[in-house]
């Protein structure tokens, strides 16, 4: 390469890598894969070595990490937090082994362990108690995130056993898959942007200022190195076993060996088995076991010479971008989606990839019809990690982000500091209305499952419902005969949904049955932005009624522990919107619970003096819920039939002997419908 070209390329790479470092470490939103990042970095290192005159003293090649986040106290590490040198090839592992043998002058013992895909942390302990937890930051100094780390259950606060008086231990904080799914589900329910992968969720969690919020995120931590003057063992393998006894979690997947073949077998086993692990790994780390040998080998400026990481390649495929479509969520948030020419990736056909937001499209410099690289790493949804620019036609135009809502044509807005565009037309933009209704009837909200599977869409398309309160005005006649053909999507066949007698009966029953749903779930069902299940419970418990909540000002809302300013603003503005107040009022008139259940007044004495037995199962209620209703209305529950029983409520699979006995004793047998009629529920 010519000197002039090298200079330009070094500048380009430096700039790109800085941006990617910022995306990764500060924004927690990388737009290229680790593999691609490493390739760029390698290219820069090579060029800097060949043309040292153009090497910038602050080059990304000389730095280990990202920038310092200003909100936390900045702490200097006692020894720098290094990185690991990476490889993607077996050949380089062989070379590593050759190097080790040559430098040490004898056979070398290695330990192989997992490379956890999370966020590095360094924790100091004194006399067996937790002192301080600091993030890697730029490798020299990081942020004091002690309060957040203390909330991680697997990080011991007090140790047991024979530990040194003072030491610093390092490890990786990560979010297991189950916790990741739970957090994203909650975020979806409260209308927040989803985390792209568990690593981003873990790093986002560590940087939160409210440690109570962090404690609800099921983070985990695995430890992999220690710094202390007073160690009672002299090798890494014993460190992993010993520290485990003091209370630290260390990798359960480790081998100790002299043989390269064992190392490759371990790598292959882990590459094959990684999908079965409950957390993400991005490779395997191979370390020289003996501490004296580690000291002898020492470190380069960036990484220890005695260790190497074998990283798994993310599975990738190349295909063509056919179009970009824009989805509108129930909160009006716009999500761009890349529609791709179908391609096989990690065993599944991929036709779509998430594009997240306008910035990502811009940073990728995506053009219409581009050949794109799709990647499925630990991420749940495939993403576009790169573009084959050299295959792009000269006439292709950049993808233009939409300015108006694709559904209702309203001008989109983008709030300062937010990544997503929004359609502000929340009261008449169809997907927002349908999305809110879908949320209202969902299992954890009002649980009206008889309205699932496209039925809301049919009701909306036919003008039967525009908001949640309309559901409670529906009659059997309003429903009968409605139908719609749903086209085939994502491998599901096309299907026709039609409202026949039984369907209509079930819908009306399901809606009526939702009147027993407790206040906190009603509050969640309203779909107020940032009010997910947990926040709804906190607010319900604190204010005890919708009326009191509606009257609260932002200060008193924000004064509640665990309720931040953003939630307070959102709740306040919901209850100061006349349209929303009208909706809540109509729901109240329909009989939906508006007060905390222990304060719900006895409904009535409609069942006074009547004794009931329940048999069988019911799709609308659990047996306990029916028992509760009987008691709330002054009736009495018994378990066995006798001459004193007034009614047998019989559900599906009611015991035939019970039915016969009730007949013989002349006891009234009710289906759920008859029972609900006794309570004046509309069925
Ligand atoms: S040893 C001296 N072991 O990978 C370097 N690191 O680029 C000490 N990581 O920042 C690192 N699993 O956060 C080591 N079993 C493991 C690891 C591991 C994940 C992370 C670590 C480090 C990065 C290396």
Would you give an account of this structure?
The structure is a single chain. This protein is of the alpha+beta class and 683 residues long. It has 25 helices and 22 strands. Strands 2-11-10-3-9 form a five-stranded mixed β-sheet. It is globular. Residues 82-84, 113-116, 120, 172, 224-225, 285, 304, 307 line the site of 2-(butylsulfanyl)adenosine.
Main attributes?
D-amino Acid Aminotransferase, Chain A, domain 1; alpha+beta; binds 2-(butylsulfanyl)adenosine; 22 strands; OB fold (Dihydrolipoamide Acetyltransferase, E2P); Helix Hairpins; globular; five-stranded antiparallel β-sheet; 683 residues
Quick take:
This protein is 36% helix and 19% strand. By secondary structure, it is of the alpha+beta class. 2-(butylsulfanyl)adenosine (IVH) binds next to strand 3 and strand 8.
Question: What topology does this entry show?
Answer:
Elements: H1 3-26, H2 34-50, E1 74-76, E2 86-87, H3 90-104, E3 110-116, E4 119-126, E5 129-135, E6 141-143, H4 146-150, E7 166-174, H5 177-189, H6 198-206, H7 211-215, E8 220-227, H8 236-246, E9 255-257, H9 260-273, E10 281-288, H10 291-297, E11 307-311, E12 315-328, E13 334-345, E14 348-354, H11 358-364, E15 371-376, E16 383-387, H12 430-441, H13 455-461, H14 468-471, H15 476-479, E17 483-486, E18 495-498, H16 501-513, H17 519-525, H18 533-543, H19 546-551, H20 554-558, H21 565-574, H22 578-590, E19 611-615, H23 623-632, E20 636-637, E21 647-650, H24 656-665, E22 668-670, H25 672-678
Parallel strand pairs: 2-11, 19-20, 19-21, 21-22
Antiparallel strand pairs: 1-6, 3-9, 3-10, 4-5, 4-7, 7-8, 10-11, 12-13, 12-15, 13-14, 15-16, 17-18
Helix pairs in contact: 1-2, 17-18
The structure holds 2-(butylsulfanyl)adenosine.
